[in-house]
Design a protein that fits this description.
With 117 residues, the chain is mainly beta. 0% of the residues lie in helices and 52% in strands.
């Protein structure tokens, strides 16, 4: 397993941008697919974006396509989520997760993103 720590959350006005970071410990970071999920109050945790081990393949939820970009820097053991054109409905706790081909087995503690209207 890897240990994951998210940062970069905060309060932003609608239309603004934030970049989340997720720092991973361990020498095997580059072997994991990485993902971002979010959970709004009273709702289930939902998938936001994912990236494969090399960064060559990405996937997004329909609700964020064209606005969010996931990327990774394997030299820095870090995955990023660039969030543009933020909407109030993007307000949630954002979690990063690691997938070792056995499912999303490692999770961070989450970072709060609040978008005001």
């Amino acid at each position: 397993q890897v240990q994951l720590v998210e940062s970069g959350g905060g309060l932003v006005q609608a239309g603004g941008s934030l970049r989340l970071s997720c720092a991973a410990s361990g020498r095997t970071f580059s072997t994991y697919a990485m993902g971002w999920f979010r959970q709004a109050p009273g709702k289930e945790r939902e998938f936001v974006a994912a990236i494969n081990w090399s960064g060559g393949s990405t996937g997004y939820a329909d609700s964020v396509k064209g606005r969010f970009t996931i990327s990774r820097d394997n030299a820095k053991n870090t995955v990023y989520l660039q969030m543009n054109s933020l909407k109030p409905e993007d307000t949630a706790v954002y979690y990063c997760a690691a997938n070792s081909n056995e499912g999303w087995g490692s999770w961070g503690q989450g970072t709060q993103v609040t978008v005001s209207s």
